Structures
1.
Amino acid sequence: MLWQVAVARWEGRHDGAVSAAAHGEGTPDMRTDTDHPADSEHGGLSRRTVLLGLSGGLALAGTGLGPALSASAATLLNGRWCSPARGRLSSAYGWRTLNGVRAWHAGWDVANPVGTAVYAAAAGTVVRRGWNVVGGRTGNGIVVSHGSGVYTYYGHLNAFRVGNGASVSAGQRIADMGATGNVTGPHLHFEVQIGGIGKDVNPRTHLTNRGAVLGGGWPTLDPEARGQRVKAMQFLLRQRGRSITVDGYHGSQSTATLKAWQRAVKLVGDGQAGPKTWPVLDYVLRQGHGGDHVRALQTLLNKHSAGLLVDGDFGGVTNTAVKSFQGLNNLVKDGEAGPITWQAALS
Ligand SMILES: [Zn+2]
């Protein structure tokens, strides 16, 4: 409860006034609304680590509301959240006027062709799946419950990739982007709802505050972050010759190692893996490469349901997985993991 209030304050919401309106979608505009699951090994591990991160967050918020959160807002960048899809931001959250009608837009729209992968933005359970599953939202939709009254909604989907009741991990593919319902073009309508289904907050702000960039971009992981992206960072540091345990936890040792490497390459040594750090830390990889940098890539592809063996061998299987991942995200399917592919895999 405290946590919800704290989050609402952090989002800059006014005590539910906006969410209570919970309007549906308006009339059409351009590219907007008018209104294989992860293999058991990796999915299970991912869920456990993410849940650990969640309990840490709850404990923090419980210690003292505003001050605790504002003083340590950076700890929100805990690796739990990721972008639900790659694409162009085509319509913003908030009031908008379409065809002369002023209406509340309860989410952000991310546009890309039909079939583009849609990922769970955080770990949780699919609680609704089907046609018009939330009042005012049209077409095929999915609602994922993340606990503590936090939900995400994915709308206008073309196909479902998980069943109702399924447990999903952050970054797991759950659906295909589509144009079902009242739309003028294919896109994902994405919402974050806090305090109950339909109680929308600004989903882009919500993601930004948690180190994820809606639609793409480099994520940001702070000290104390956990998960597959942390593992990838640790593998990359190992490839860069640093001695580090790859455990998916960016604790004091991991942070110290990153800081030392950052200073060595003339970056700000803040122990934060963000937009300045990732492009320097990554490698351009293609078939034939082998090592911990390949393990980093394989780990990230698995976060997006690739189901690869993390063996550090960029062979034919990994090559196929990279191309498949690139296709699902509407990137050039060349099998080469350059900055754009890393960015997508990290989001
Ligand atoms: Zn929308």
Note: The chain is about 35% helix and 15% strand.
2.
Amino acid sequence: MDYESVESIVAEASDAIEFEMTSECSCESWDEGTDTSSPSSECFGCWDDDKDNFRFAVVNPWLERNGWDDDTLIYLYSGNLGWNRVSGWTNIRASEVIDALTLRGDFTLRYKLEGKDLTCVRSSHDELGAMFTFSLATEGEN
Ligand SMILES: [Zn+2]
């Protein structure tokens, strides 16, 4: 995702913000001979670039709207994890909203920020869209 499209996402901050992270490399290489771009055979670090964009477009407004910071303890819940659709939860730091959901192998994370509420749908070989919710962890949930 290039910088311009990130800016347009931020400009529409009153609407729902959607952001997709995928484990698949999206790097492209430019062929000067034909003036076309094509999927690159080597990765130039698109995952980390996307993470930086995600931070700017989603994490910052999410924390700001809730009055939280990177260290705020977040209750992460899903009701349909994996092929057998079990429920599970864990407490994470707000800064871990991506790292907590990554898998080995191919996966796609589709985040959505609506008002103060962040959700994510994860798709992978074993999952048909596991839905995650993020809320403030309260005392007693340990
Ligand atoms: Zn790449």
Note: The chain has one domain: 3-141.
